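My current task is to audit a protein record that another person submitted. Alongside the sequence sits a line of tokens, each denoting a local backbone shape. Please read both lines and tell me whether the tokens look consistent with the sequence. Do not assume that whoever made the record got everything right. Thanks in advance; the entry in question is below.
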Amino acid sequence: MVIRRIVATLTTAAVAALMPFATPATAAPAVDPATAAAVNAASPIPAPAKGQLTAEQYWTPQRMAAAVLNDLSTMPASSPAPAVLPRAGSKGGSDGVAPPKQMTKAASIHSMSGRVFYVNDQGLDRSCSGSTVNSAGKRLVFTAGHCVHGGGSGRTWFDVNRWVFVPNYHSGSPYGTWNAYQLWTKNGWINDANRAYDVAAVVMQDKSGQRIVDAVGGQGIKWGYGYGLSEYMFGYPSNPPYDGSKLYYCSGTTRSESGFPTLDCNMTGGASGGPWLENYGATFWAYVNGVNSWMFWRNNDPTQVYKWQSPYFSEDTAGSLFNTVKDM
């Protein structure tokens, strides 16, 4: 029997017993995570030193368009092609709304999905995908662990002052660019690049006095639901034949391959960190219970991707991560 749990069922004591996190990467000034929400809301990060670009100045439209992917892969089989998601309001689009309860009708998969841009620990411009997630703090973006930290020996955090999330990128970024405040992932990813822990949560700075989930909406989140689930996976593939300019999806029923939820899809690199949504389009609520983490391709050709995997969302992975940052 699969024990089903959602975020409201977990206790503080249960979370405390789970695998710890490393100290997160935090935009200056560094603060105790326990006070992060108050500092983030009331004390904006100081302006950069004279001559230093802000994150918005750094990530020009031209730089975003040129940012290359940062995705992992395993071994080098045909698969269904992903469908391009129509622009919000166009024929065939889907609202797919999720918590919070007072979310406006404008919130949809379009506004809650976006591209992630950052400078990695080797100083290179990179891109991933991500999704806003509802929480008490209403400042969370979920993505893959390898979109915030290099993973394993010799690797470190990416530049939190150059980490941004752009909701609804494919519709011309109508909600603007949002800056990161803290980057969080699991020690299993940080220390060993263990794919089972390749999930991350990013606490975002407020923009014009507004929290990101209040501005664009936020998906729900759940864990411990097993396999055999009907899922939609979303992302911004940027490796050929795609260019990162559109939001795509694949859908199917998850299967377990060595404990990793697996879906057939040929989205290429750049889709990493995009959400796997259970109940998308079937109910009023949609829940993130996976992220694009690891792709497989044919013939040693990264343009011929045929399936993706996600870390299994358990209390030890996504559950403890969410509960650590939900109030920030």
